[in-house]
Each structure stands twice: as structure tokens, then as C-alpha cells.
Amino acid sequence: MKKNISHLFLITILVLGLNSCEDSLPDQYVNQTIVQGYLIVDKPISGILVTNSKPIFGKFDDISSQIRNAKVQIFYTNSNTNKMDTLDLQFRSIGEIGYCYQDQNLKVKPNTLYYLRIQLNTGKIITGQTLTPDRFNWVREPLDKIYYPLDTLKLPRISEYDLSWTKESNANYYLIRVICHDTVEYGKYLTPPDLNDKNRKCYNIMDHMDENQKHTYYKNVTTWNLLGDSLTPTVWMAFKWFGGHTVSVYSPDQNMFNWFKNTYFTNSTENDPLLSSVKGSGAFGVFGSASVIEKDIFLFKNQK
Amino acid sequence: MRKVVFNLKNLKIFIFLFFIFSIIVNSKSEIRFSPDKAALNGYVKDSLTGETVVGATISIIGTKNGGYTNKSGYYSIQDLTPGKYKVRVSMVSYKQFEQLIDFKMGDAIRKDFIIIPSQVTTNEVNVEADRDIETREISISKVNIPIAQIKEIRIGGESDVFRSIQMLPGVLTSSQISSGLYIRGGSPDQNLILLDGATVYNPTHLFGFISTFNSDAIKDVELIKGGYPAEYGSRLSSVLNITQKDGNRNNFGGVASVGLISSKLSLEGPSPVGKGSWFAGGRTTYFDLIKGAIDNDPKTPLPDFGFYDINGKLTQEVGQNDKFSLSGFLSRDNFNYVNAGLDLNLFMGNKCGSFKWTHIFGDKFFTNVIISGSKYNNGMITSLSGYNIKIENNIFDYTLKANSDWFASDNLTINTGFEMTNYSFEYIRNFSGDDKSSNEGTNQGSRVNLMYHDWLYNAFIQGNQKIGDLMSVQAGFRGSYWTDAGKFLIDPRLAYRWQIQENFAVKASVGMFHQYLRLAGDPNFSLFDTWLQTDKSVEPSEAIHYILSFETSPVEDYDLNFDLYYKTLSNISEVKLTATEGSQVKDFFYNGKGRAYGGEIFLQKKVGKFAGWMGYALGWVEAVFDSINSGKKFRPKYDRRHDFKIVVQYQFNDHWSFGATFMFQTGQSYTAATSRFEAEMPGTYPGEGKVIPSDKYALRMPPSHQLNVNANYLTKMFGNPLKISLDIYNVYNRRDILMRTYNTNNDVTSIEDVKLLPIIPTFSIEYKF
Questions:
Q1: Is B197 left (phi over 0), alpha (psi -120 to 50) or beta?
Q2: Which ipTM value was assigned to this complex?
């Protein structure tokens, strides 16, 4: 009996020893305020998001995270009057969600310093500032119609689809965004139309992912990528579906570039607070700006 | 971009210093031993292979005189009172050798001893080391693992030096698939790894899974976990000194083996002109062959992957006092994946070569002159439908070093040396999309080609003085000068040993250490290891070690060590993972400080049918960086509080042997999250799910533990030894966690653990001829 007890004791100690070092998962929720706003040169001021972070466990609800009653203001020096203008923004819940300036005719100016000030109803103040980049232009804009390569294993470079744009002297990186406008009913776009072919997904390396990864990959119609120069071939991996797209090249300020890195260069647990460009207790995020050039294109299935 | 050219003025200073050392030492060496005394010196060699034996003890029975062989297998004993003495030579895994020698007044006898490996007999060998001799060997925190034991610690059927070292207490890893060594709170870049005197920068294969050192090509492995002497420098934490085999001077022979991961072949034999030997060994994977047999779907191609390493050495004695050796080492990993417009190539390699001249001046002065070169290269070349990305890191170093052991008297040994190294660090990065090469000095955001040229000068002197019969002190300093940073630093080192009782010694050490190189890499995979030097934008890293050690032998053949250590670290670095631009070292690293402290118990039995060790380490590591964790103190990922390891090997009979290793460690740290949000870019909906981290590495994962066993059957084929081994890795299928992440792809956040390898049984065959 004594022997059994001592064995049981030893086994208990062993089990405790093997398991005692693990920490339980934290369930403490620490609220943070996240600001995400971009001023795009020659575009109206809109889409500035002020949100609460949500608890880790439980269903994430984008809508309920939005803070809709903050006082959001933008200041800048009006070059016509040489005085500081104040713009009071309003929350808009339809279209491009977020805080916007009611007068959509007022466009963001290039090479201008803008200040952001947000006051929450708790009294918390969040600030940021951005210097908008200069305008730039296409040197070789995307063709209206491009055709996916027949050789879907090699997906080679097709030089006639190369893009280029004017390079600003202080711009080291550009961002390229590709938005797909329609992800269904490809067949009707074929020439001649083939209504039996509704497969709009491009052939690419993602075909070999498991279903969960595919779900993640295909849930967003927009892809962002980093470009290191003012010339790029058409990289076929940027497309997920055939059909109509808008291709945009952004020349970002450092704030927007940092937030891009925070969004796509780090994994979910490595949100880097040093890449934030807003100031305020318990707040982080981005107040950045960019110049942009855009072109609508149509990507045909590999039929030529 | 700074470009530094050869600095003649500084070189002159160092050459002057070295000559001062040399003149002092040489002038003293002319002072012969007392004419009424005698002396003994020479090499200790293996009877089968003729190779010199490192670390053998030579005792003059009936006196307190004696010594031990250095890294070249040389010993020198001074101040012997004339008379007839029995000289005993002892070494682990060798039969004890004794010879009666008549020492006459004024004799300086040159005697090379030949000792017989114990494997050739079935009798258990009893090593009787003379404690008087051991008092001279301060050797704090130094561990020697016999090569025979290293060969029995395998993973995937592959014996591995680093895997063996990882089974020592106080030596941690970031995971079970990483061979990076975290020693007493130091990161892998803080370990000086030397192969025949040449620096090896990233000695790993398979993304860090195993080391590049082929155990068939190695003669001696010595690890100094801290407080290392002045002859070593340029790293903060430890020294791993590996000596390649010289080769068999008596007979031609070889070993061939086949395992799951790779196959090996080594050949060795005597020099055709006599008094020398050669060794050549190689190892390669055969994944390409396996792939060829199973890969038939071009839509789902398997990657091409392979590695190889080659070792070679030529050794030649000329006369009795000169020995020349030429050794080389080459390793290469290559990974290539081509599919759907993606062409990804990852590569990594080391090339090292050294030429060594050993000369014995009289009976008191032993010198080595080494000319060595090392090249490390790693990188990635990727093409996405013609958009090219390239990252490449190259280090070239060429070193001339000379050191000498002056056996001034039976109580005093002085070591001096100097070293000058020319470094070239090259970092090429091209994110611009084109594949044009850029000029040296280019730094235009996406296109970077940085080349740093630098000279490092080191000189050291250290003395080992025996004080009375029970104490010895080792004191020294190392001076170093980096031309580019313009820093001249002195590292003092002091160690002490007190043999309190016949069977119990206390040792203590304190020393300062500096490091100029910084490593930017991922702790989990070593493929992207990028080395940069310290420049004027940051201070060199500095550490101070304090070590107290107790050494005893509670039972015959068992050594028990208990070490306490405290280490401060300043100007240490953590890489900025999101840095995309910069021209200075500070642009790519955060700078901080830290400390590590703890204790280790190590019980080792090196000889006999039952051999192995058991160790436990309790340690703390802390770091503070202004830019990390809001400036608050945090423990690094690899900090593990408890670390318990057992290695046992049992020779059942002439045919069968068995082995097992077991380790238990506190789980590694990870960063948890306190809330979630969606990161948005213009036009992106939904955004990318991100979590907001809690304090860095504040939580621990479950503990790691693993049992590996092996059985070996030794038989003969065509009259030669054939060994068949069965290894079972991770016997009870414990799936430890490599990393823990939050999956925010869905509305409900889930925690995902990336788990490590399951149980893996493997066979391997080794044939000696």
C-alpha cells in the first residue's frame, strides 16, 4: 500500500512538474482606440476611421467597433489665404464609411501639411500630421485589355504589359493596389460569350492552398503590394479573378508606408506600435497621405 | 556609406605590440631550465591513427610535476628533479600508458607518447587523473564531449555536434528543429565558432535543423560556456572550438554511412612522403533522387532542396619540430521552388580554409602561425513573373594570427598572440523589380549595395601561474582595435582555482568581453542570418561575466560540476523586422541591455560501459530596450527557467549498445494579445485582422520534453566493422509548440499552435574499412 502511495505521489509530482510551467491564456480586454485615415491628393477627404479594439474572444463585429460620435477636425494652411483652415468632419455610414468632409469638392492638395485632431466623448485627444506627396503621372499606363498567359505554370512576363510612371526624387517605394470589381459570371465577358464558363478564378499558386487558406485569400477583392521602383512588369499573382479591375499606384508618405508594413509585413501578433503615426494615450494608427494614379483595365482569361 | 581603407598607422602599433610580446617571450625562452633539473616535452599520439591527442594528462609519478596536451597535442614539463620516474599518460577512451624514464641532470627529453584507444579492448578503462596536474587546468565552464558520445546522439539518424551540445545544461535552443545555441542567456551570434582556427558564421543545414559539422571529420569539440580566456575574443558569450581530424598516419581507411537525411563518406590515409596524413570527408542529401521518384504533377511540384558539406585536411611533419597543416571546409544549402510564375531560390554556404604552421622552439616554446580565410554567403533570389527581388549577405574574412605557449617553468605558462583580420561585409538588397546589379555604395531605398571593409587587430597575453600545490591563477588581457569604428578596447580576464581537498576544487572567473558583429535573423530559422559589423552609429556590445564553480568527483569515474554565473550585457541588439531603408547599423537594430544569471549542475561519466551525463540548469534572462515593450523589462523568447537533460549510453556487449536522451525545459515565452482590430488600407474591405500585443514575451507555452532512444548493432562485413543503428526520435510523440499565433482570418479569433516533429523512427548504416 505504502509503495502504491509513493508511486502515486511520484507520478503526481511528475505530472505537476510537466504541466506547471504553462501560463493560461489571458482573458483581460484592454481597449485601444485605433485611427486610420488617409488623405489622397486630388481626392476629397473621406473614410477616416476611428474604432475601438474589440476583445480577442468573441465574434468580431466591425460595425460595433466604430466610434461615430467623435469630434474629428483637420487643419491645414490654405495657400490662397495663407491662414490655417479648420475642417470639421462628419461620420458617414454609407458608401465609404468613416469621417468625411461634407464638401466633396474640396480636394486634398499636394505638398501640404495637414493636421488631424480627434476628441472622443471621453475627452481623450488623438492627433496626427501628414505632409502630402507631390503628384506623379503614368509614363506607360496599363493597357485597357490584358490577357492572362496561356502558360499558367510559368506565368511569364509579357513586356507589352509593363507599367511605369514618373519617379519623384524622394520616393523610394510605391504601393500598388489592384481591386477586382466583379467576381462572378465570367463567361459573359468571353469573346464569343461562353455562358457555361463561370470559373472566374485565375490559375495561380493559390490553387494549391487548403480550403481555409483559400477562404482567407479570396475574401478580399483588393490586393496590395510593395514596389521598389517606378517600373514594374505585370505580376500575375496580383490577380485573383478575371474581369474588370482598377489598378492604382500610390506614392505614400512615410506614415502610410509604415502602416502598410504594419498591415502586411507583420503577422497578426506582431502589430508594431512603433509604426503608428498618431499620438494619444491608448491610441495608435495612421494618419497618412499619398498621391495616386489609377487606370481601369479588363483582364481576359487566357484566350490568346 | 563608409569605406575604410587599410590603416597603416594602426597596423604599425599592433605589429609593434606583438614584437614587444615576442621579444619578451623569446628572450625569456633563451633562459634554459636550471642545469640541475630536467625537462620532458613532446606529443601524445593515437596508436591506430597516429593523430595527436588533445587534452591528455601526463603525470610524473612520485612528483607533483606534470602537464596536459594542448590543442595541437603538445605538452611540456619543466623543473624535474633528476632521477628515474614512471611517466603516466592518461586520456578518456584510451588505455592508460606508463613508461619508466631516467631523467639525468640537464636533460631536456623530447618524447612522443603513443597511446592505445580503449575500443580495441573489451576491458573497461580506468582513468586515474592526477589531481596535482588538474590544478593547473583552470578551465572554467569548459565541457569536452568525447566524439564517440557525439556520434551516438542522433536526430533522423544523423549524428550532430550541435545536437550533442544542446543536451548540455544551460545550452538552450529556440526550438527542437533549431540548432542555434543559446548559451547562458546569449544568442547564437554571441558564440565564437572556430573550425581549425577559422571562424564559421552560420554552421547549419536544413534551415538550421542540423549543423554543418560532419562528426566523422571531427577530432575534438570543446565548448567554453563563459568566462573564456584571453586567447579568444570578439564574442560575448561562449567559444565552440572544433578541431578537424588530421587523418590516419598509419593506414588507409574510411567510413561510409547511409541515413535518412544524408549519406557520408570519409577517407583518410598516410602521407605518401611519410610523417603526415590526409583526410577527406563529404556528406550530401539525396532528396533529388526521392523527388524524381515521386514527383509527376507539374501543377504541384515539389521544391528542389539539397545540401552538402566537404571537409579536407593535409598534415605534414617536417623534422621533429615543425608541422604544417592545410584544412578546408565547404558547406552549401540550396532550395529552389518554381511554380505558377514564382521562381524562388534560397541559398546559404560557408567556405573556410586555414594553413597552420606549428613550430617547437627548444623544449619551452611552442608556436602556431595560422593564415585562414572564411566566406559566408546567404540570400534569396526571387522572380514573380519577371519582378525580381534579391537579398544577399556576404562576409569575407582573412586572418593572420600567431600564438605561442611559453612553458616558463613547471608553475608558469604564458600564452601570447596577435591576430589581424581583414573583413568585408557585403549587403545587397534589390526590391526594385529589375535584376540589374548595383554599384558598391548604392543606397537608394529599394536598391542597396553596402560594402564595408574593415581591419581588426587583436593581441593577447595571459599567464597561468601555479601558487603552491593547491592554487593556480590565470590572468590576461586582450586588446582589440577596429579601424572603422576607431575603437580600442581592453578586455581583462581573470580566473582562479583552489583545490580545497583532493576531491574538491573551487574556481572563479571574471572577465570582460566585446563584440563588434551583429546578427539580423529569425530565431526559428537560420537561413536569413545576416551579419553586420558595428559602425560609428552604435557602440560595440559588451558583456561582463562573473562565474563561481565547484568541481568534485563524488564517485570514481564521475565528475560533478556546479556553476553559478552572472552576466551583464550592454549595447546588445534586436533586429527591426520592418526596416526597409537605412545606411547605418542603427537603422536595422534596436539597442538595449540585459543580464543573465543562474546555476548549473552537471554530472558526467565519460568512460566505461555506462557513460553519459545528467544536468540541470536554472536560469534567468532579462532585457531592456527603449523601443521594445514600451521600454519595460522583458524576457527573451528563449528564456527557459528550468532545463533538465540526461544522456545515457550503455555498451551491452561487443555487438549491442543502447542510448537514450531526455530533456525537459520550461516552455518558451510568447507574446499574447489583449484585443483585436482590423487594419485598413484604402479600398480594402474587410481589413487585415490584427491583434494588439500584451507585454512582450510575457507568457509561457507548455513545457518542452522529449525522449529519444537508439540501439546499435555492431557486426562485421567482409572482415570490417558494420554498424546498424535504429533511432527513435520523440518516442512518446510529444508535439512541442514551435510558435503560437492568433488567427484573425475569421470573425472569431482562434489560437493556432505550430507543432514540432512527431515520433520518427530511422535506420542508418555505417561501414568502416
A1: left
A2: 0.88
